[in-house]
Every structure is written in C-alpha cells, then in structure tokens.
Protein: NAD(P)-dependent alcohol dehydrogenase
Amino acid sequence: MRIHAAVLRAGDGPFVVEQVDIADPGPGQVLVRIAAVGFCHTDVLPRDKGFPAQPPVIAGHEGAGVVEALGPGVTEPPVGSHVLLSFDHCGACENCLDGHPAYCRSFVQRNLTGTGIVSGGQPVTDAEGRPVASRWFGQSSFATHALVDVHNTVAVDPDLPLELLAPLGCGIQTGAGSILLALGVHAGARVVVFGAGGVGLSAVMAARIAGAATVVAVDLHENRLDLAQQLGATHVLLGSGDDVPRQLRKITEGGADYALDTTGVPEVIRDGVDSLRARGTIGLVGAQSRDLVLGPAALATGRNVRGILEGDAVPRRFLPQLIELWRQGRFPFDRLVRIYPLSEINTAERDAASGVTIKPVLLPGS
Ligand SMILES: NC(=O)c1ccc[n+]([C@@H]2O[C@H](COP(=O)([O-])OP(=O)(O)OC[C@H]3O[C@@H](n4cnc5c(N)ncnc54)[C@H](O)[C@@H]3O)[C@@H](O)[C@H]2O)c1
Ligand SMILES: [Zn+2]
Ligand SMILES: [Zn+2]
Structure:
C-alpha cells in the first residue's frame, strides 16, 4: 500500500515527507491509520552517529489512530478500534511477566534500533524500492499509516480526541509514571523536577496528584517555569542561577525526598543528587550523552540514583488511568500540546528545541 511518511534521510538533514510503500500486516501486527502523533525528544536520537537506529528511518513513537487491518491470527484490537500506541515489548520475558515491560529483555532491539525484530526485511520501502527502517518503537508513526505490534496498542473510547491523547504513549507516561509508579512519591513529599519540558511538566502534575507538599520545577526557560507554576509547582527555580543545590535544600527544608532529572545533563544530575536529603532518590529519564561523575561522598547518606524507562508503566493499565485523571481536570496535559500538520515536522522539531513548543503533535492527514 502507498502511504506518506516523514523520513529522516541523514543525521544532519531535515525530515522529508515522501511516498513510500508499506507491507500488509504480518503475524502479531495491525495496520493503523495514524490520526495524530506526538513528537518526543527521543525521535531525534537517530541523528546521533553512535545511536542504534540510523537513517534512513521513519521515527515517531507516540502514535494514535484507527485500526484498519489485522495480521494473520490477530483478533484484537478489532478493525475500527481507536488506539494509542506506546513502546513495544515481548510480553513473555521475566520483566514483562513481572509487570515491568519497559525493562523487557528485547526493549532496545524492539524500540531503539529502528529495524526491530523482524524476519524478511523492513516493511517499508521508498520510491526506488530501498528499505527504510520502519520498526521504531514497533510503530514508526510519523506517517499516514503504521504497522504496529499488537503489544503496543492501547484501545481507547472512540469519543476521545486522538490529537490530544497521542503523546500519552511516551513522554507524558514517562513523566507521570516516574513519579507515581517508579519513584512512588508519597503524600507530603518534597519533590524536585529538573527540566520543564513535556516529561518534566507531566511529572510536576503527577507529583501534585500524589499529594506532594513541595514541588519545585527547575528549567532554563522562564515561560516553561510559568507554566510549571500554573500546573502545580509550588516553587520554580532558574537552573542558570548560583548554587542550585543550596537553593533547593533551602526550599525543601533540608533536601528533596525525590528528584527527577529530565535534562540528561550530567552537571544537572550531580546537582540533583546534592539536593537530596538522606535516603532521597533521584530518577533519571533524560537521554544522557556524557558520563555522569559523582563526588566520593555523594551517595554516602543512603541516597539512591535510579534509571527509569517509560515511567515503569504498563501502558494498558496506566494510560486509561491518566485519561480518567485528565477527564476529571486533575491532569491537564493537553495544555502542553501544540498541533502541526506532518508537513511542518521540521518546524515542530525547531520549536521543541528552542522551547517555544512543549509537546508538538503532528497530524499526518492534514
Ligand atoms: N527514559 C525514558 O523512557 C524517556 C521517555 C521519554 C523521553 N525521554 C527523554 O527525556 C528527556 C526529556 O524529554 P522532553 O520531551 O521533556 O524534552 P524537552 O527538551 O522538552 O525538556 C527538557 C527540558 O530540560 C531543560 N534543561 C536543559 N538543560 C537544563 C539545565 N542545565 N538546567 C535546567 N533545565 C535544563 C530544557 O530547557 C527543557 O525545558 C529527553 O532527553 C528524552 O529523550 C526519556
Ligand atoms: Zn519482554
Ligand atoms: Zn519518547
């Protein structure tokens, strides 16, 4: 079938919307017509030479759409279902069976190589018949249609607005899940969130849902800090200021119980560790490109540093909970979203990088 997709052709080049051919769904797959897809910072990682996925690749891993066809043997979700797409996982390894699919044994292969675990080549080929990596997060949804592994579909009520819900599948789930599931923030806790992008602001909202008494957002952009305050941060702090850990220990009256880093900047993480109280925990979700170096006594007081993938969520369990909280007005993540046609994907990337837009959502049909 002929579809349109935004292909990243070179690490230093733009996304190019072009016509490509997509195969019929194989065993364990469904064909989804993509109504909307969020743009997550992770979608630009194939630009880095050392990253597992490399161009030419179709990125996009916060898809939302309607099931159009089922692969052999697939009965669920039925044709016509509205689905949100999340990360892929096998469903059968120890961590999947334990209810921690983000730590699936084949997570990297399935989600981050761009080529996934497929026999018989890539399902998408370009106009010259050359293969394009099209298994990014088991979906490659910067396109009008995507072949999706059944495991990463979450069926939702057809009345819900897919263009707002699309980013739940990764960034928003990661921020909220890190607070509510992975760190298990408790009522009365003191929480610091580094980075007020889509992930960090979702964490801020989740910390308030958990009943945290103090929620501090740290960022370099004033406009993002303003929004953090509107979404529930009790305090905000410019990350460019002097002695950030000392200021944070003061605000939290001795140190944070929990911190979450969404910046991936080693110096920020080190400040985050220094702003924890004894036995406090910092979760790391930001993509890091440099080594993290901590001082010799940084962890001596029982402090913990913990890596977190996808908020440690089970998407089919967690996304409906987030949708219900949104319906109740307690999790207004839609305030982060700005909509672009898929043809404007390069503008969306620039706006996200400059801080103008927090969560771009692309509409392939417009
Ligand atoms: N681990 C996971 O499962 C997972 C899932 C989704 C996203 N991510 C990663 O999480 C990170 C955040 O994603 P996002 O969509 O929120 O990105 P984003 O770029 O919108 O947000 C990052 C924020 O960090 C701020 N920042 C950068 N340097 C800073 C500094 N020195 N001090 C204070 N603030 C600083 C930026 O101003 C920005 O607002 C990305 O690296 C992304 O790849 C990880
Ligand atoms: Zn698994
Ligand atoms: Zn993501």
